[in-house]
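In response to reviewer comment 3 from the previous cycle, which asked for concrete evidence that the modeling workflow produces usable outputs, we include below a single protein chain processed end to end. The sequence was submitted unchanged, and the resulting structure tokens are shown without manual editing.
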Amino acid sequence: MTLRDFIPAANQGADPGLYELENQALDPEGILWTELEKAAPWEDRTLVDLGCGSGFWLPKYHSAHQLIGVEPDESLLPLARARTSQAEVRHGSAEHLPLEAESVDVVHARFAYFFPSRHLDPTPGLNEVARVLRPGGRLVVIDNDGLHGEFAQLLGASAPAQRQGHGDYSTRWWAQRGATTTEVMSSWRFTSRDDLEAVLRLEFGEVADPWLAANPQAVGLSYGYLLHTWTRP
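The workflow returned the following structure tokens.
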């Protein structure tokens, strides 16, 4: 399948190894994961990890009856397929899901495509997810909280991040489509200062330097998430 509208991610697509460290640092307390399970339980159900990347999170869905990863970046597919034998990893995207209609119970999308802004309308992807979800099935979008936490401060200083949407724009966009939003405050925690600096510069470039200078002992930061949960009628 040729995905003519695919744009490689500037973080994982550019440096999968460094992005692995970022994933390892995410949500050490398990707060986000607990809220995900509340939003849309997947035990004994069919779950799609949309934008699964290198497959880091696929093993965490081990209780699903059927687990499918979908990823548009062909260079990441071998990494995702090697992550766990339980998952079937397919090439596709939010707008082009390689799935049958009404074949899925839960779709998770982490920081992939569903960043509504004045420059991006995720409606085509939402329509495609609606096609593959069974009635009553749920899409859970894990988004960045642009208002709360230290990570939000970096988002506010980053021009590329601002182009993805700012303030409560995404919450209002999802509310207009009947979704509910849950705010979750968690954190990143790295094993070394070098890893923190490398990841922040991967995500924010030179914008990270003032924050790092102001927090010279930090090996982590507070990180707010938004869980937008949409249920197919």
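The chain has one domain: 16-231. We consider this sufficient to address the reviewer's concern, and the full set will be provided in the supplementary archive.
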